[in-house]
Amino acid sequence: MTGVTALEKTLIGVEASAGGSTDTPSTHWRGMGKVKDRLEVVNPPERVGKVGGTTRSYIPRKGGEVTLDGDATFEQLCYIKNAGIYATDPTTDAGSAQVWTWNVQVNSTDSLSSSDLDTLVVESGDNNEAERARYCFVREYTESGRQGEALQVNAILGTRAPSTCTFTSVGDTDFQNPAQSILGSLVALYIDDSTGTIGTTQASETYLEHTLRHRTGWVELPARDGRLDFSNVKHIDDEILLDVVFEHTGEAVTEKTAWRNETGRALRLQFTGDDMSTTDAGATYNAYTYRMDLYGKWLTFGAEGLEDQDGDNIYRGTLRVAWDADADEKATFIIANESSVLP
User: How far is residue 187 from each of residues 118, 145, 203, 329, 330, measured CA to CA in Å?
Assistant: First the structure.
């Protein structure tokens, strides 16, 4: 049997225990996925009287990498956050919304233990062969939003050494869940001083597109227990950068001034989707919502001068997200959907 591109698929699931040998995927990843083997083969240098040496070799290191990309949805983006920041469970709103919240780590008392993560098991391949990777955690991910497109997510996951497998049967019942992509056009951007209240001042005519880049801080802890891949993961320093393209408006000029004056900024990007199946006047979220609250300062804003984009003048800015002493905040991600558990 030969492999067919159209018959490729990627399955994901949360491991009951990190690297669990019997844990299996539970749902389809509704995008593109690939399992990559990072096994290393070394041919040591030697002089044994043979031109080109011999076939002597050894494997000093094993491991893998998974890439997951595609439309970000209100449900499956939770997998990326739970495997890249820390695992959380939703709270129930007054209506039918389930509210998932991640406060990015700042202090030593925050969720920094490897047991705080939801690691994943991933299977990917086609009709001819599948590969399985365990102990998958998100090293870094990007989210890109543009007019007329769905929000795109690209995640890079570290994994233990992958192996050939037979696909787990997860059925087709989840093909309607998730059904809702996060749309790049259904977004509001708010910009305030970090000394004020985030989400107060909407930049209604200036925001064109953005890319969020999050290096999560989770890395492999080199094995010291007889493994050639990793035995555990740990959290080191992270990095969050937000690249934004602005119309050349008065709001953009204000942000250029904030860059030059090193003024702390509080940015909120809030995406909305369909209404919840049950709404309530007292609910915080009566519609599917993805919100990111980011604090920091502009690394650069309009430094290259005006740029032309299809006859339109624009400025580009990069916000370095970090803990702000005035606000005592760094970054918070919130997703409101109707899933009390992930599919």
Answer: 28, 9, 11, 22, 21
